[in-house]
Fold:
Amino acid sequence: MTTTTLTHPVPVDDGHGHGGGHHEIEIPYTLHPRPDTGMYNGKLGIWLFLASEVMLFGALFSTLILLRTSAPSWPHGWQELNIPLATLNTFILIGSSVTVVLAWANLRLGDLRKGKIFLSITLLCGLGFMVIKSIEYATKFRHHHFPSTNNFFATYFVMTGLHGLHVLGGMIVFGYLIGPGAKLWETNRDQYTNRVEVTGLYWHFVDLVWIFLFPILYLL
Amino acid sequence: MPPKRQIRVGNQWMYARDARRALEEAIRVSESEAKAHEHHVPFIRKYVFSTDHKWIGIQYAITALTFLLLGFSLMLLMRWQLAFPGKPFPALIAKFLGSSNAPGGVMLPEFYNQLGAMHGTIMVFLAIVPLAVGAFGNYVVPLQIGAPDMAFPKLNMMSYWLYLPGGLLMMSGFFIPGGAANSGWTSYPPLSIIATNGQTIWILGMVLLITSSLLGSINFIVTIFQLRAKGLTFMRLPFFVWAQLITSFLLLLAFPPLEAAAILQLMDRVAGTSFFLPSGLVISGTPLHNAGGGNPLLWQHLFWFLAHPEVYVLILPGMGIISEVIANNTRKPLWGYKSLVGAGVFLGFMSFVVWAHHMFLTGMGTAISAFFQTTTMIISIPSVIILTALIISLWGASIRFTVPMLFALAFLPMFGIGGLTGLPLGLAASDIHLHDTYYVIGHFHYVVAPGTIFAMFAGIYYWFPKATGRQMNEFWGKVHFWLSLVCINCIFMPMFYQGLAGVSRRLYDGGAQYMHAKPVIHTNVFISSAAWLLLVAQFPFIINFFYSIFKGRRVEANHWHATTLEWSAASAPPLAHGNFAVLPVVYRGPYEYSVPDHEGDDYLPQNVPEDQPGAPVPAGGGALHGTAVAQKES
Amino acid sequence: MNEHAVEHAIEEAHEHFGHDNSPEAIRKEIRRYLIVFAALGALTIVTVAISLLHLPTHLAILLALTVAVVKGSLVAAFFMHLISERKLIYAVLLLTVFFFGMLLWGPWHQRYNAQKVWKGYDLNASQPAPAAPIENSGHSGH
Structure:
């Protein structure tokens, strides 16, 4: 922590020559933790976002529980769904969670090259997950199993679909961080590392949701 | 020995009053410096896609006030049909509505339903919440906590630019075949699922709005936790900031279930699923070919899981504004600040566990009804604590009857009526009679209209000098206040009378077809006349508002002689240039008015150093410009 | 960047991030991540294996959820480094978990009701149940 003597009023402090002649205001604690909360802004922000995501998926789990417990009959996941493919997908997502923390660890060690490699593996894992998911979906459609078939398939498609959208969102961010976003490393390493950490937290959450979706939809 | 009654600033001793003046002078100087250094910010970044919380707040305010007027106008059309069922509209209005909505000038029932659904939706999601949180929260919170901006300025911009398209998308429903959503603002299935395409538009608009308020709430929470000025501990926060913090948590955790529910309803509508559709549904004699097995009550649970906390989202910022205005105009500290904060937090928490009191009549069972009835009775306690603390704050004060204060004073009994009439609805037994009658309409409108909207007006009159450097005209403000107060009571008080007689809401003819409604529905003409008069009463406000922006009386930066931090910044702080000449340091609680033994002014701003003789100068030094040292992370 | 500068940068970063950023600590962390990965993989196999036994529903749910909770906790504690996080996050998460519980409990209460209303309904039926009078459509006010 440093103490800066402000001999100049904040509004005209023009230390940051951001493009376009645009004048940026410096927001405190974007990079380093505030001592009393122990967090930088982005980290608190992502945790709050994840809390709201818990409630989003919570509503869907609530739907599943109510519909299933009130239905006179409900197929077992293993009767209708492809467990080997889903198990493979579970391994892929868990693996991608590891690679994203490894990317973060390497960035903290100052190694951008390795960090990018691990981020790329994560992105590929996400892609693999989506490919397998679409194979699964295609098979279901071929067997004339649609969301409208019954509430089992309705919940299956909506929950995995929404989860898939989250995977896709994460992939877009990783793509950005590997590509154009990586330029930030040159000017502001800490911020780039923070971005990877925060994206990683989101990615682990997506993994965590799958860890619950997998047994609940496929195995029970 | 230090000189008596003086404080040390830098290396010299001076009276606190002089120190404050010097500080103000320094701020003035640095402001003019800032203006001199002002960069040219392109118009589109300064006024359209601005990341400055002050301008975003103003964008929210103007948009939300427009929606407020629009939602109000829809209701005015409905009131014609209720007062004079089956009578054609005056020619001009009939022509405006067109023959598809009002053939021969007589409103169609389908159109009436659209108006009802959209009135509720607009008022709650597009007008009040964006005004209370988006506008006041955005403009005031960073200033009140001494922050240069919100924690995530770009996210803030995105919140607004999701809100506006979401709102416009919903409005576009009026122009598609079948019209806008017409299943009530609650969108209960199965009705909403078999409804016309306006409902799909409603859902899509809702998803945008929910995303917007989600981003906003994250931003507010992070800003309040992370960007508080040095010395501004939680128990020194103005109550308004507390209210916004609690509100943001409600939005953060209550909205996602509605987003999920909206997705499920969308699937039911477009993908043929049956999340909310039971088996064996027959529509107009035709069996519905769907899988069935869904549960309409599931929607109600998920909807009210949001919509009950939403009620507190509507009222808490209003309470926050009222607290600021009352403390300032009574020139006294708020009575029981700690209990206010405690009650606010408890209220926020409890608001998550009362939602099913909207569902007593669904046959969900006595055990669960008893649970929600109990929690509902419990949640009335913190509301009463807050209202009591605010009323006791008036005790023994020499009240300044400014326009914002008049609205604040009216808020207290109006919110009281709204709150107390809610108790019979929270008890399952009396709710059986009152459910879905005009009594309910009267109840929640007392909370939201003369409650929250009056608080919003108080806030507009109160912070107008902050945003523009000018004051709104007091005389026309008072005209606006008194006319609104009278009209609004003439509208909603008779509704209790109608509701107790059992007149159901959502009736196209106002109840004319029902025997039991005969003795009471004559009041509909009176109510409608009062509503139209209420529109007239808003003209002084609208004209005053725009006139004062350009021609209002110029006032000093701290016009109301207030203590909180926003008044230590320049009035109408320049856009896109931070808020404070020097990041403020806070030395005391927010409401140090009429401090005993304090000489000079009757208020002690939060950022002026202690004026106790010999008191150590807190770390960071005096707040004098030039010698000021601000602790700052970099 | 010479070694001394690296060391200095790491020291500074430690102060800034609230994590131990010394190379040894990070390498230790990486080992820990790999162990957690192995544990997660093993638990995945366990949960799939259990499902192959087709145990009675209650037992199956109990076991599957237990394994899922353990796996989830591992991810949250180590990958999301919740184990070394601050109280503020715990408070937010605790609040969320409580409301999450409420959200599951409230609608779930509706199941008895639902069973009453849709008795004899077959989920797998391709045709809708025979047309019933419209007032039985689920709003069970009776």
Q: What stands out?
A: Chain B has 17 helices and six strands. Strands of chain B lie at 6-9, 12-15, 282-283, 286-287, 470-471, 553-554. Chain B touches chain A through 68 residues (CB under 8 Å). Confidence is low (pLDDT under 50) at residues 612-634 of chain B.
